[in-house]
Amino acid sequence: MSTATVIAARAGDQRALDVLVGEYLPLIYNIVGRALQGHADVDDVVQETMLRIVDGLPRLREPDSFRSWAVAIAMSQVRDRHRRQVQAPLVGDRADPTDTADPGADFADLAITRLRLSGQRQEVAEATRWLDHDDRELLSLWWLEAAGQLDREEVVEALHLTRQHAAVRIQRMKAQLDAARAVVRALAVRPRCPELSAVLHSWDGRPTALWRKRLARHTRECNRCDRAWSDMIAAERLLAGIALVPVPAALMAFAASGTGTITGTAVTVKAGGLKAMIAGWVAAAKPALVGIAATVAIAGTAGVVYIATQGEEQPAVTTAAPSQLVTSDAAPPPAPSSVPSSNPASPTPSKTTVPAPPPPATKSAKKGVSTNDKFGASNAPAIKDVKADWYYDWSPSPVASVSGVEFVPMVWGGGNLSSDLAKAKANGKTLLAFNEPDLKEQSNMSPAQVLDLWPQLQATGMRLGSPAPAYGADTPGGWFDQFMTGIKQRGYRVDFITLHWYGGDFSANATNQLKTYIQNVYNRYHLPIWLTEYALMRFDNGTVYPSTDQQVAFVNSSTAMLQGLSYVERYSWFLLYTSKSGDTGLYSNGTTPTQVGAAYRAAGG
């Protein structure tokens, strides 16, 4: 959301206000819904929050802080509701029986069914039911941070904590979440462990923090149940790029009515506000902005607003083509300094519409491709045909010589470093360094190990890219942040940042999730970006790929977006060759592109 839109809405521009509310209603609903875990009060708290945002907007002094301000209002409303619940009178020795969760609005169920979560993602959603109120409140923000919808500064402001204290609380909450995941796994095993069944004898079937502690202790101590802790993918990896849970019909009705109640006083939305925006959607089924630039439509059944997907949902709606919804940033050129900026904050650039990529094959100075030595010299015709300006193969030596296409060498890991650096220097002017060192199955190196080797890379005199983390390059205190902090402390040089990104959300929102990640990294370090691996796939109980149509739509929209970002110097699709039907490969042989390959060949320019 641009600051200009906030300023216009604050000044009374109805269209800007509609856009503002359209973007933030899903975000606020997800924060409140997860914090209250589907309680019957969720809709009321969301209504109160949105009305307070609209009512308070004219008094907002710093428009560029709108999102953190809106999120803080939502959390304040959640806390107020919790205080009212705690202070509510008891009925006999028990709380008021009307103060219960709405079975039809259980947020874990909504996330699982409406986002089509499966495998370990589904386990994470189910595990949220076992957290206590404070952890669910924290989770509601951290989940959105992990998904790329919020950044750490916004989380810290909403919690009213110092960054360090927030980090400690988040780590503790994640530990409780992992314990709950182990409980979910153990309970799902059939036949069930006899000792676990004995522990469950007095359980009433409701997930609670107390029972999480009891059952998690059993899983740690039981030789049969301790396997529930094995092979857990980090929750932030599972949540990266995940979509927002769709807004329910009840909030649609509120928005259409244009009225609500705050602490017993009727409030009418100014100048039509929510009423005008939602009524316009219902009347014309027009897409509006959600998240950053997500496609939103009205379903033909139940009046549910949801993020339109290709292939996963089949409502009778009309949506614009993804390429018509991509936004580009009129951002300033990258800072010339090779040392990260000490100020991670940066104004959000304004957005302008980018046209669909042209259909003819074109050549882009940004566009590249990744390949490997499995196909040897047969790589050359495909690299040439795809109209790549550059390529790399995860090694210091080229697998093929392609006229007019630059080879960029890479040192994959720390072994044979002297020899690899000599080869790299002989084969190029730019150096890529260390593949996914934050994963044990890849180069598996600590930030300290990489920093100790970095002077040898600098000594080549080549233009030098950072290590390429598998994920979390925008996470304060994460692997990449530790590395960049060490670079600054030691006075070393990094000329550009290398990123990998794989989207698990196959909807039209994928491009915006990728864009958010790239923007967050750039805003934190202010260095040029190379995206050297990217595609749509999920690493969840095996690799899951989207449909060909979904992958093609993503190629079209993502390349248009990447071409429009001034600080993205280069990008490279994964992978040149297909190894099995339906994967991300661009070519089935040296001259025959897949449908995905044909789309990538036409991209750029």
From TrEMBL:
Residues 338-354 have a biased composition (Low complexity). It holds the Pfam family Glyco_hydro_cc. Signal peptide: none annotated. Residues 20-85 form the RNA polymerase sigma-70 region domain. Residues 318-378 are annotated as: Disordered. Residues 384-600 form the Asl1-like glycosyl hydrolase catalytic domain. NCBIfam families: sigma70-ECF. This is RNA polymerase sigma factor (Sigma-70 family).
